[in-house]
Amino acid sequence: MLEKFVVFSDFHANTFSEFSHSDPVYGNSRFSEQIAVLQQVIDVAEKENATILFAGDLFHTRVRVDTLVFNHVYELIANSKQPIIMIKGNHDNITNMIDSPSSLDPFKYLNNVTVIEGVGKTKTEKGNVIVGACYGQEIDYIKSEMAKYSGDIFMGHMGVSGSLGVGSTELEGDFSKSDILELVDKKYEIGLLGHYHRQQQLTPKTMYVGNTVPMSFSDSGLIKGFYTFSITDEHKLKDLEFIPQEYAKGFLTIDLDKGMTLTEDDTINNYIRIRGNSDDLDLAKSLDKSSTGIPDTIRLETIKKSSSNNRLEMDDDSDFSPLSFTKAWAKANMPEMEKYLEEEIKEAL
Ligand SMILES: [Mn+2]
């Protein structure tokens, strides 16, 4: 029988303080947005009668998860009518060892949840085989275990070299694309990875799912969400579709010195930072004089002209002690900081 799936990854539940205000039920508004998105994932799964897959990093804070954060996430997952299969990410674990105690451990006692341990497999009610590899630094062990398995769907929490990061820089990882081609693409209909947050197709059959909810300005301008897809009776992948999350604001960086401008539309669903030199920002502030002030979803950041002046004129009769050098440099470059730097250098000497 055709089986539908919903997959999400790198949820990073947390009471992020930036741009948040306190919320009596959820602790803060950023976390209440996250909970609404988790509800959206579960609602879509219930509507589609889908099995839910999670590819690691359910919680953001390692070792000490906020009680409100844990309880609300646990409650939603425990009450889901759909089965959920999870692997553990590094953020869920105490150490980077694959068998580390984990914030996901309590979930394995829920009847609707399967938490895959280490590298392991599970079968859905409809007979599809899901193989998972939790995060771990034991790379050779993980590869040798992965080599033993095959199935319909692979989930792994891992870094793969050549993946794209923030600003499309190439990342270094523990695995290579040829590892993934050999250990995943050859043996599964689809590979679903967590760990790196930028959604991307890595190899023909394997992708990074991406983080579910925008977390910070490193997600600037990116649409976040989750996927649905089906595995047919013939064990073939069908109808892979991205579902944008609908409840959390995005992050957007407006660089005035790059000629970027802020549109009315931008301000509706984003947390925004406007960056520029102080003259540009004075302009931005003055434009806002008519209204009630700059909304608390917008932050103005002055780009400091960085000082890299490493030449210094000193009198011939100067002593060249670190203290007098520091004072002379401070006088020339950061006079307002002279006293502070003097104290700092005295402490260091
Ligand atoms: Mn991770």
Gyration radius over CA: 25 Å
Level-1 CATH class name of the largest domain: Alpha Beta
What is the H/E order? EEEHEHEEEEHEHEEEEEEEHEHH
CATH arch. level architecture of the largest domain: 4-Layer Sandwich
Number of domains: 3
Bound molecules: manganese (II) ion
Total helical segments: 7
Strand neighbour order, sheet with most strands: 6-5-4-1-13-14
Per DSSP E runs of 2 or more residues, the count of β-strands stands at: 17
Helix content, binned percent: 10-25%
Strand-pairing-aware structural class: alpha/beta
Classify the oligomer. Answer: single chain
CATH homologous superfamily placement of the largest domain: Metallo-dependent phosphatases
Largest sheet: 6 strands, mixed
CATH fold label of the largest domain: Purple Acid Phosphatase, chain A, domain 2
Mean pLDDT score, rounded? 91
Q: How many angstroms does the end-to-end distance come to? A: 74 Å
InterPro entries: Calcineurin-like_PHP, DNA_Repair-Maintenance_Comp, Metallo-depent_PP-like
Domain Calcineurin-like phosphoesterase: 4-198
Organism: Streptomyces tamarix
Protein name: Metallophosphoesterase
Question: How would you characterize this protein structure?
Answer:
- Helix 3 links the parallel strand 8 and strand 9 (153-157).
- The protein has a six-stranded mixed β-sheet, covered by helices on one side. Strands 7-8-9-10-12-11 form a six-stranded mixed β-sheet.
- The chain starts with a strand and ends with a helix.
- The chain has three domains: 3-244, Metallo-dependent phosphatases (Purple Acid Phosphatase, chain A, domain 2); 250-302, no CATH class; 310-349, no CATH class.
- It has 349 residues and is an alpha/beta fold.
- The chain contains seven helices and 17 strands.
- The longest helix has 20 residues, at 29-48.
- Bound molecules: manganese (II) ion.
- Manganese (II) ion (MN) binds at residues 56-57, 89-91, 157, 195.
- Pfam families: Metallophos.
- It comes from Streptomyces tamarix.
- This is Metallophosphoesterase.
